Amino acid sequence: MENLMVSFLTLLSSRLLAAFGQQQDRFKSAQELQQYAGIAPVTERSGQKSWGHWRWQCSTLSRQKFIEWVTHSRLKSYRANLYYLQQREKGSSHQAAIRALAFKWIRIVQVLVR
């Protein structure tokens, strides 16, 4: 079981490295990376109404990578799990809480990559 976990983490880290790329200036802000990965929602407005929805035009493979990473980090990191539980207590669905955590993690990693 431990070998399976190590191989999973190796695969996941290589996928994340591919998502961030070797060009550190590829994404000027965390928001650009969030939009590229499909983590940031699209907000639409019409008249006085506004609503958000899932981002359709994005790298779905990158979105999957970040969701897998965040799901795993929640199981290993006390603070990540605490943030996830706070989102759930606010009434967010599981997927919305995972996306919120991914939103946070991407901003943290973007600062570290610079």
Please provide a written account of the structure.
It is built from five helices and two strands, in the order ααββααα. It is mainly alpha-helical. The protein has one domain. It has a two-stranded antiparallel ribbon. α2 (30-37) crosses α5 (94-113) and α3 crosses α5 (94-113). The radius of gyration is 15 Å and the shape is globular.
Key terms:
114 residues, mainly alpha, two-stranded antiparallel ribbon, 5 helices, 2 strands, 9% strand
Based on Cα principal axes, name the global outline: globular
State the distance separating the first and last CA atoms. Answer: 35 Å
* Helical content (DSSP H or I, runs of 4+): 55-70%
Poorly predicted residue ranges: none
Number-wise, the strands total: 2
Taking all residues together, what is the mean pLDDT? Answer: 76
Strand proportion:
5-15%
User: From N to C, what is the helix and strand string?
Assistant: HHEEHHH
How many domains make up the 3D coordinates? 1
Produce a short descriptive summary.
Helix content is 67%, strand content 9%.
Q: What is the fold's blueprint, element by element?
A:
Blueprint: H1 2-20, H2 30-37, E1 42-46, E2 49-53, H3 60-76, H4 78-89, H5 94-113
Helix pairs in contact: 1-3, 2-5, 3-4, 3-5, 4-5
